[in-house]
Amino acid sequence: MKKEQVLKAYADAKEQYAALGVNTDDSIKKLDQIKISLHCWQSDDVGGFETPDAELGGGGIMVTGNYPGKARTIDHLRQDIEKVMSLLPGQQRLNLHAIYGDFKGEKVDRDQIEVKHFQSWIDWAKENKIGLDFNPTCFSHPYANDGFTLSSKNEKHRKFWVEHIKRSRKIATEMGRQLGTPSINNIWIPDGSKDTPVDRNKHRELLKKSLDEIFAEVYPVEYLKDSVECKLFGIGSESMVVGSHEFYLGYAIKNNKLITLDNGHFHPTEQVGDKISSVLLYVDELLLHISRGVRWDSDHVVIFNDEMQFIAQEIVRANALNRVNVALDYFDASINRIGAYIIGTRAAQLSFLFALLEPTVKLKSYEESGNNFERLAWLEVLKTKPFSAVYNYYCLINNVPVSEDYIAEIQQYEKDILSKRK
Length: 422
Ligand code: RNT
Ligand code: ZN
Description:
binds zinc ion; TIM Barrel; alpha/beta
């Protein structure tokens, strides 16, 4: 898009929003504060670098598609993420899983990971001036094959996973310390059962016990934030997931942890947008895993849809941007993976901007005076206001491609880099 065109459209948008009492420059400033944590696992279909041909296995999560160009080495991954960040306005973070360590060809089991396996990531993050977040990996491993990890009745397996997560927290703490921004260590485990279990109780007791053991070590909050991620069901865990919403919400409230809300992890008619104002009354902070489930927790690329807008609106309306950590969680191997990052991150940013451009005070006053026609009419009218002109301007002042211009950049990257990967 031509620069003059973007500037002209922005000037007009600014005037239109000002008439509603919204200052677009302020909205942009607030948007710029939101540092979205990019999930490293979209680049290589959740494979990781434990072995050269590592693939996602089990855990009830699934990648479909075999589009060429996936990252096969740590250098590929870094190259891809650098490309992604160069096409996005604002600053991001990177969210690593434990299987993405720099193992240098050595076989390092999950209960052996150390800071040294992630030091090159920390150095890379320093160079790129970004923060890192972390996730223990409790899937794609023989000790997770029976569907249970932290809640396993097999004491050897349970202990193994406890050790893995203890080490993950230590690594995350070191990331936070060296990078000067707290790292979130997000615990998601696949534990659950395909068919109706009789002993749900025992598994939940075991999970609680494991978490208590894991969190016994206390780290400074300025380095580490602990979060726990709930889920309703997964493929192969249709009848029970041990770490349900009730389980983790209770645990997080009682133990002062963050709770992770992944919008693919609830019944399709349930909305994470509706949960935010409730949960924030009882926990200090949230971690969002922004995703798009199509019929199930399918982890499709995030788009600018009602669900995403609702989530962003509720955070902004609750004035809670400083208490919500935003991360992406999807993996689509059927399209250009770099393109998938840009579509999803831009959609999330656009949703937050859309919410930040809302004349909330005006809408509330209609609501309070019982003028619900006016409230609904304005909500509809706002969908036709020039918010995209504001986003385009945000891209322009950040020197990144505006509007559709990023598409050609990704096509070029595919031609030059991705298509040459073996
Ligand atoms: C799985 C969870 C979890 C994973 C990542 C890879 O259902 O959403 O967050 O997607 O850890
Ligand atoms: Zn998730």
